[in-house]
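Morning, I've got a small favour to ask if you have a moment. I've dropped the whole record in just underneath, so have a look.
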Amino acid sequence: MSENFTSSSTSEPTKKATTAKQPEPAFGWNTYAERINGRFAMVGFLILLLLEIFTNQDLFSWLGLR
């Protein structure tokens, strides 16, 4: 038993996946430095909040400034 398969030309062409170009690390005021500074600030703020929750003291009391 022989089956005849034909390929249809109506299928969509395959799309090539592209990735966004990532900025290179550099010195000075640039978008890469600002993005890294923002991420470190968010992590630091989260650590500060967790410190205050677990110790029941604010930052100044924890540092001994009050």
Notes: Helices lie at 31-55, 59-62. The radius of gyration is 28 Å.
